[in-house]
Amino acid sequence: MKYITGRAAMALLFLCMLTANCLGSADYDQLFRRSSDLMAQGDLDGALALLKQVPAPAAGADGSAFVSSRMQAARIHAAQNETDKALADCREVLKVFPDNSEARNLLAAMEREQRAPWATFLADCLRFLPSLAKGAMMTLLLVLCTMLVSPLGGLLIALGRLSRFRPLSGCCWFVIWFFRGTPLLLQLFFIYYGLPSLGITLAPMTAAVIGLGLNYSAYLGEIIRGAIQSIDHGQMEAAKAIGMTYGQAMRRVIIPQTYKRLMPPVGNEFIALIKDTALVSTIAMVELMRSADQLFNTYFNVTALVLAAAIYLLLTTIFTFVFEKIEYRAGIYEHR
Amino acid sequence: MNIANVPLLDLKGITKRFKTLTAVDGVDLQVFPGEKLVIIGPSGSGKSTLLRSINLLDEPDEGVIRFDGQEVGYVTRHGRRHLDRPKAICALRTEIGMVFQHFHLFPHMTVLGNVMEGPLTVQRKPAVEARKIAEDMLAKVGLSDKRDVYPATLSGGQKQRVAIARALAMRPKLMLFDEPTSALDPELVGEVFDAIHTLAVEGMTMIIVTHHMGFARELADRVIFMEGGRFLDQGTPQEFFGNEQGNERIRNFLNRLM
Question: Residues A101, A141: one domain?
Fold first, then answer.
């Protein structure tokens, strides 16, 4: 049965070749329909032969029949696992219509399948890296700004908490209580979406630095207070005994001794900060997380997320080593 | 010994209470320039608290402190007694050196840095001058070769000598020693004793709180025995350690130490 229809198709093909030169666009449509019929009957070879008769259109002529027939052929070839032929069909279309998205997508999909998985992964990485790198720079900028602001805020909060002036220590207690006790996401939403209703509109970057800065100041405040209180009380007495004021004693004697003790918990906080910056993607900032999310939603390609994870790990690893180094240097006077 | 008639330090009715405990109970004390005073007594008798009240590291609840002719530490406003301004208290402390039982050197500064710190930060002397003073003081306690190391590398005796140099760098008129040898291994006591002895010979006025009878015997002009926040007895070392010690309580205490 298949053999007979095959022969019939060959005869038909021969007939068509004779008349090919004088066929109009309507006739091509006819040809296309007939090939579809053949396909429905299971005669793929026959259908292909018909489809191949549609020539490339002359410049300026309507090429829709050509495109649909070649793409149809490509799909048949692809289904038959004749990838080379399918690729050739796609390229034929692209030669005439370089912007044809159907041909390009099919070509890209088949090319991806042809390559080894790791090569695909690398190609995707290269494709995503530029926009992820841009996002990572934003994340890094945000982290650095917060790292600049929050230790200062934290020191003020810590000194305030240690003050014997009750209203001041009470205020600082309240700030810590509030910013540690509510989600960072909520604080960011409030600053970016809530403050405009009070007449204060902030750029995303400003809102993000304020939000992260306040939140991390609260945490660092408690860490710094703990470090100050962990310094032997005798140090303050010795400083006072040579006539130092409270401020001089803090600046020259107490606080320099806290650096070494601060490094492990502060390193922890700053590593947490790198990851917490992902939350600002919710307030219209395009940082690393947002970039990865956008790529993932455009290409449905997990590679974007994997690459983003790798960049986060790279950043946290660098921070880990830098903080270990600083901790060593800060405690050098304790080495015997 | 040239002891003038005007006391350098004059305490009247000093009282310090901690919650229910009265650590110092109405103590009167006069210390004359050049005098070496040694206070002994059992633990918890208020010796250290009295010493710390003098430079207001502990703030006495009652009493008057006169230092160098001036009433210090407290002012009376609207009939109420207030602690003086921090500036005034800091100024007082620059004239009174203090050495602690546990040294309390600044661990993040070198030996030279520790000794320079007072002149540099408190007296705001130029670095060159502060360094010169610090080097002189270190030479005095025999630690010039240790000037660039951190305190963590020093022995206890060396640390205490650095602490003495640090106090001396402020050129104090009065030195307070709060059990300066109690945290030291016995073989290290000698070097600290020698440093303090040198100072005594130079005529420094000093009050030493100690359990080390050598100070009382060899260095003191006057020995005070303190118990329960009061002075039980005072006298010259000869009177104190001689056979005619009349107070049974003190005799028992001294016998236990011997």
Answer: no
Query: Any idea which residue has 């005796």 for tokens?
Result: B157
Written as six digits, the tokens of A291 are 């970039």
- CA distance linking residue B246 with residue B258, whole number of Å: 17
Contact criterion met (CB < 8 Å) for A253 and B106: yes
The chain B residue lying nearest A245, using CA atoms, is B90
- What's the domain range around A214? 119-334
Q: Are residues A49 and A198 in the same domain?
A: no
**pTM value?**
0.77
Whether A329 and A201 share a structural domain: yes
Are A189 and A283 in contact by the 8 Å Cβ rule? The answer is yes
Contact B90 A243 (CB under 8 A): yes
The per-residue pLDDT string of chain A (336 residues; one tens digit each, 9 = 90 and over) reads 455 565 665 555 555 554 444 456 667 778 888 888 888 888 888 888 888 888 888 777 778 888 888 888 888 888 888 888 888 888 888 888 888 888 888 888 887 777 777 888 888 888 899 999 999 999 999 999 999 999 999 999 999 999 999 999 999 999 999 999 999 999 999 999 999 999 989 999 999 999 999 999 999 999 999 999 999 999 999 999 999 999 999 999 999 999 999 999 999 999 999 999 999 999 988 999 999 999 999 888 889 999 999 999 999 999 999 999 999 998 888 887
- Which residue pairs, CB below 8 angstroms and at least 24 apart, start in A135-139? A135/A286, A135/A287, A135/A288, A135/A289, A135/A290, A135/A291, A135/A292, A135/A308, A136/A287, A136/A288, A136/A291, A136/A311, A136/A315, A138/A285, A138/A286, A138/A287, A138/A288, A139/A274, A139/A277, A139/A287, A139/A288, A139/A289, A139/A315
The distance of A331 to chain B (nearest Cα, Å) reads 8
Give the H/E segment covering residue B63.
Answer: strand B62-67
ipTM of the complex: 0.92
Q: Cα separation of A187 and A217, whole Å?
A: 13
CATH of the domain at A262: 1.10.3720.10
Structure tokens at B197: 């002895």
CA distance B137 to chain A (A): 15
